[in-house]
Write a structure and sequence with these properties.
With 241 residues, the protein is of the alpha+beta class. It has two domains: 1-110; 115-234, Alpha-Beta Plaits. It contains four helices and eight strands. The strands form two sheets. A five-stranded antiparallel β-sheet has the order 3-2-7-1-8. The protein has a three-stranded antiparallel β-sheet with strand order 4-5-6, with helices on one face. Strand 2 (160-163) and strand 3 (166-168) form a beta hairpin. The N and C termini lie far apart (170 Å). The chain crosses the membrane at residues 12-33. Keywords: Coiled coil, Membrane, RNA-binding, Transmembrane, Transmembrane helix.
């Protein structure tokens, strides 16, 4: 009866061993599978997060580049506005200088301010009267002679003109009354001194042109004297108080 008991024990021992082996193998396989799944999930999670982060950086970079472009465009626009303002300001300064010079020149021409400068003095005197002459007026300086000289001087660039020290302008009137000339209501006897501020050489050359004003005056028996290169001073125009 004892031998059968020994076989039964051996069979039981083998069953326990196999069971333990299978249990360990199952545990190992289950652990390996769970570890593999965890690693796979970790890899998938890490890859997705990195991709999303990279996309976020890329989008932020694109947005920043667009903002930079907008800022550059705005800066260029502001610089253009500043340059335009500077040009307009410079043009305004130049125009102001031109306007100031024109205004000063106009005041000088209108006789509103005293003036001084180089110029030419033209003296007109009555000619020597001969008793056998038919008409003594042929030897007298008339307003037409004075007008001829004044017009020639203005054409030659005279900036200001006076007669016997009295400033004249475009509205002045000159009337001959016998041996005297009335300038804006004030009478002056001969000789008549016409002074002009301007380039002396130009004014003199204009007066001395062949067949010009000076020759005509001499033909009318008028004594003409030119004195250039003087510093001439003129007061402002006489105004009614």
């Amino acid at each position: 009866m004892k031998p059968p008991k020994q076989n039964s024990r051996k069979s039981f021992s083998k069953s326990i061993v196999f069971s333990l082996v299978f249990l360990v193998l199952g545990f190992i396989m289950a652990y390996s599978y769970s570890l593999s799944s965890a690693n796979k999930e970790t890899e998938e999670f890490t890859g997705g997060a990195f991709f999303e982060q990279e996309e976020g950086y890329r989008k932020e970079l694109i947005d920043q580049q667009e903002r930079n472009k907008d800022l550059r465009d705005e800066l260029q626009k502001k610089q253009s506005e500043v340059q335009e303002y500077e040009r307009s300001f410079a043009d305004g300064e130049n125009r102001y200088t031109e306007y100031a010079a024109e205004a000063e020149e106009l005041r000088r021409f209108l006789g509103l301010v005293p003036v001084q400068g180089n110029g030419l003095k033209v003296t007109l005197q009555d000619g020597d009267y001969h008793s056998d002459s038919v008409n003594p007026n042929d030897y007298i300086v008339h307003e037409s002679h004075v007008f001829q000289v004044i017009n020639e001087l203005y054409i030659s660039g005279a900036q200001a003109i006076s007669i016997n020290g009295q400033r004249i302008d475009g509205n002045s009137y000159i009337v001959c009354t016998g041996p005297v000339i009335t300038v804006d209501g004030i009478q002056y006897p001969a000789p008549f001194v016409i002074e002009a501020i301007g380039e002396p050489e130009v004014l003199t050359s204009s007066m001395e042109l062949t067949g010009g004003i000076m020759d005509q005056l001499v033909n009318d028996n008028i004594i003409v004297t030119l004195d250039e290169g003087q510093v001439i001073e003129m007061p402002a125009l006489l105004t009614e108080s």
